[in-house]
Amino acid sequence: MVKPKYKRVILKLSGEALGGEKGFGIDWQVVETICEEIEKVRELGVEVAIVVGGGNFFRGRSAEHIDRATADYMGMLATVINSLALQSILEKRGIPTRVQSAIEMRQIAEPYIRRRAIRHLEKGRVVIFACGTGNPFFSTDTAAALRAAEIDAEAILLAKKVDGVYDSDPKKNPNAKKYDFITYLDVINQRLEVMDSTATSMCMDNEIPIVVFELAKGNILKAVMGENIGTIVNVKEAK
Ligand code: UDP
């Protein structure tokens, strides 16, 4: 049997991805497809933790009428809606799942407890981390980097709407070049839109590889198997 490349991963799903074509609200078909793939990944014995964004409902930095910190808390609450949606569909497929929230809301989710999260993963449960880092002025990308470091994940699978990292925006520049591999420093120095710089530096400092790929059918599985489907961000290219 072919072995997966990673034993424990963080899957970062943006809220926008869950919104499907519209990018807003929840496209249940998209959620079903994602969960179907998570099931396959789990069957390979890979431990999966998910960090989900909230941009399909609310993004702190785009709010105009209220202060940034409050807007960010609203954004974090949006991630809870997405987490519960994912949990429900995963459990409908018979996959045991726990939502852990960085902001306590005991009636809805467990509080984030690192050791407990690791235990859930070891028992084969999918753990969904809600509310990002729990702090305003951060992003769910940073939450993915932080949780990956905390739980010793071997990689962050960054599912996006584009199929990798380009030297310029492929939607605007038809000659944009896609990288198979790029270093964290190049991402930061060239201000490439992979993750925000806080999240990228955190991955760099902890040497957590980021696998950037398009959230299309079959790709989460391919990413876990180490297939060359998008761009790998790391310190140096693995031989
Ligand atoms: N957010 C925050 N702190 C965190 C994570 C998220 O304040 O640690 C807020 C922030 O307002 C952000 C929103 O939650 O805009 C939704 O998260 P994000 O924009 O990262 O979601 P995505 O773009 O991945 O859907």
UniProtKB/TrEMBL annotation:
List ligand-binding residues for UMP. G54, D72, T133, G134, N135, P136, F137, F138, S139, T140
Pathway-wise, it operates in: Pyrimidine metabolism; CTP biosynthesis via de novo pathway; UDP from UMP (UMPK route): step 1/1
Task: Write out the annotated subcellular location.
Answer: Cytoplasm
- Write out the catalysed reaction: UMP + ATP = UDP + ADP
Q: Does the keyword Cytoplasm apply?
A: yes
Activity regulation details: Allosterically activated by GTP. Inhibited by UTP.
Cite the Aspartate/glutamate/uridylate kinase domain residue spans from the record.
7-213
> What does the sequence similarity comment in the record state about its family?
Belongs to the UMP kinase family.
Name of the molecule in the record = Uridylate kinase
Supply the source organism for this entry: Caldicellulosiruptor acetigenus 6A
What is this protein's gene name? pyrH
